[in-house]
Structures are given as structure tokens and as C-alpha cells.
Design goal:
Blueprint: E1 10-16, H1 23-35, E2 41-48, E3 53-56, E4 59-61, E5 65-66, E6 76-79, H2 89-102, E7 109-112, H3 115-121, E8 129-130, H4 137-143, E9 148-149, E10 155-158, E11 161-164, H5 169-182, H6 184-193, H7 219-230, H8 238-245, H9 249-260, H10 264-282, H11 287-294, H12 299-309, H13 314-327
Parallel strand pairs: 1-2, 1-6, 2-5, 6-7, 7-11, 8-9
Antiparallel strand pairs: 3-4, 10-11
Length: about 325
């Protein structure tokens, strides 16, 4: 794959359509491609074991082509997940056989959520890093005992195989693939078009900082958490956080701790550290520059923040991430 946009090329995408498909597993990645259409040209083919699918109640999908015998010209095969209760054994069996025969002809294959299980059944994950929804990890390990199943990330890339935890992470995985063929500027434009204030890197735990402390129903605290995540570099104080949440400082301190198990300032610190780690993994910016971007006063303060949550030093962590990146097969 390349890193800059070639506007003369048409990228061919094949999307596998099978009974029980999870709608967002399809629509999320598809919307990324749709939003990128002004910069990159795509030909999207919908293929499956039957010509029509029941989808959402009375809504059905038609226009599905038969499973092709050849995928050599396909740049990406997308395999969305399925609801287990709606799977059809015969279609499932035919699909797995087809994947086993031809999937490796595609330049890249992307499994979303339980779509990864289909790749496992087809024998495509042996020896590879992969992931799926956290509730399906044990099943993935059974289906692909030789795979290196990851439970600490939202998507993986190992050679031509990409796998994701599912639902919203299919968007992250497609953005990652898009960055490979079109470059970061195109991806940022797509993220803005889709109103995504954060593009996740894939290294985040499935139940990481963005979900930590969100298991409550207080809309004022949710609103504050959204604002902290969207603008972490803002010089937040307890007073400004209280204004955002429309409550007094003392009440905010008590309520935030009660609902999340941490203080509002610690929550903000975790977000800032997470973004600092993302910048360290994806850029060559200095610690001082990263500190400024995430709202920490200087490099010294960033190191102090880092030490609170991480065992390795920033330099050790960055070196480890580069080694992991270089270890990925082309």
C-alpha cells in the first residue's frame, strides 16, 4: 500500500454480504469510503451466497452478486460481523469455504467484529495477530489456536489481514486502511466530514480510557467528559469544569468521584496521557511539543504524569512501539 493519494487509480472493494449482518459493521466502514470519494476513487462490489438479504425488519438488501471465483484485482475484502441468532448454517458453510479458497487473493482482508471468526474458520489467521469483540475472544482462540489473539486493542494489522473489535471500531480500521492508500491528510478530512473528534490508532484497549468512568446516566457529567475529551489542551480548572457541568465545584468533586471512581482532574490527566502516547506512537514530535499539544505545561510535567501511570519511561515506550511497528510484515 502507498501513503499518498493517487487520484488516477480506482481502488476495488469487495464487501461480503451474508445473513445476520450487523448493520453498523457494514455502514461504518462504508461511510468512510463514501466520505473519501472526493479524494479517492472506489469501485465497490457486494458479494455473497445469496442475491438478497433480510436486513432490518421489513427492509431487505438486494443487488448482491454471487461469490466470485477470483479476487486478484480486489484491493480490500471487507467481512462484516453477524448476529449469531440470525446466522444461516448453509450460507455460513458456503462463505467459509469461499473465504478459504480465494480470500488470500485480495491485497487486504478486513474482518469486523465476528467477521474475524469467519476468517478464523477459513484458516486465514494462523500465526497472525488478530482481535475481535471482547465477548468473542475465547471463541476466536478456539477457532484459531495458532493465532496471536490480542485482547488489549481495538484493531490489529498483520500483513494483509486487518481485524477489529467491532461496531464503531470498524470505522477506525477503515480509516487506518485509508491512511495507507491515501495519506493522513485525506484521513483527517474524512474524520472531519464524519464529525469524529478523535481517530483512534488501534493500540487502545477495547475498554480503555474513552469508556472508563462512563458507566453512569448523569448527563451533566457525560457532557463534561465529552468536553474534556474533545478539548484536552484547554487550561481546565475545577471551576471551569464545574461551569461546564452546570454545578458547583464541591458538588462536582463529590458527584464525579462517586460516578467514575476518580476525580475530574485525574480523568483529564488520563485523557492527556492517552493522547500523548498516541502522538508518540504516530509522530516524531518531541516530548515538549507533545506536552504543549495535550495541555501539559512542559516536558517535565509530562514526564511526571507519565510516571504516575506507566512503568516504562517515555523513551522506552516509544522505542518499544517502533520495534513493534517494524516487526509487522509488509
Amino acid at each position: 500500500m502507498q501513503g499518498s493519494c493517487d487520484k488516477t487509480r480506482v481502488w476495488r472493494i469487495a464487501i461480503l454480504m451474508i445473513p445476520g449482518q450487523v448493520p453498523l459493521d457494514l455502514i461504518g466502514p462504508w461511510q468512510v469510503l463514501r466520505s473519501a470519494a472526493s479524494e479517492v476513487s472506489f469501485q465497490i462490489d457486494y458479494v455473497g451466497p445469496q442475491a438478497q438479504l433480510d436486513w432490518l425488519g421489513p427492509l431487505a438488501l438486494s443487488g448482491i452478486s454471487a461469490l466470485p471465483d477470483d479476487l486478484h484485482q480486489v484491493d480490500l475484502l471487507l467481512v462484516p460481523g453477524q448476529y449469531r441468532a440470525a446466522m444461516e448454517p448453509d450460507a455460513q458453510r458456503r462463505t467459509v469455504d469461499w473465504l478459504r479458497d480465494v480470500a488470500e487473493q485480495a491485497s487486504a482482508v478486513m474482518g469486523v467484529c465476528s467477521g474475524t471468526l469467519l476468517l478464523a474458520q477459513a484458516g486465514l489467521l494462523e500465526g497472525r495477530r488478530c482481535t475481535t469483540h471482547h465477548q468473542l475472544l475465547a471463541q476466536l482462540k478456539e477457532l484459531a489456536p495458532g493465532a496471536r489473539v490480542q485482547d488489549d486493542c481495538i484493531f490489529t494489522e498483520d500483513g494483509p489481514i486487518l481485524t477489529s473489535a467491532g461496531i464503531s471500531t470498524g470505522v477506525d480500521t477503515m480509516l487506518h486502511w485509508l491512511s495507507r492508500i491515501a495519506g493522513q491528510q485525506s484521513v483527517l478530512a474524512v474524520a472531519r466530514d464524519m464529525v469524529l473528534y478523535l481517530r483512534r490508532s488501534g493500540r487502545e484497549p477495547q475498554l480503555g480510557v474513552w469508556l472508563t468512568g462512563r458507566n453512569h446516566v448523569d448527563q451533566r457529567i457525560h457532557r463534561l467528559q465529552d468536553r474534556l475529551a474533545a478539548a484536552p489542551a484547554t487550561p481546565w480548572t475545577l471551576a471551569s469544569m464545574a461551569r461546564e457541568a452546570a454545578m458547583g465545584e464541591r458538588h462536582l468533586r463529590r458527584r464525579f468521584g462517586q460516578l467514575t471512581g476518580m476525580s475530574a482532574t485525574e480523568y483529564l490527566s488520563r485523557i492527556r496521557l492517552h493522547l500523548a502516547m498516541q502522538l508518540m506512537g504516530e509522530t516524531s514530535l518531541s516530548l515538549a511539543d507533545i506536552a504543549e499539544r495535550v495541555g501539559v505545561s512542559d516536558e517535565r510535567q509530562l514526564r511526571r504524569l507519565w510516571k504516575r501511570f506507566e512503568a516504562d519511561t517515555p523513551a522506552q515506550w516509544r522505542r518499544q512501539q517502533r520495534q513493534l511497528a517494524h516487526a509487522q510484515p509488509d
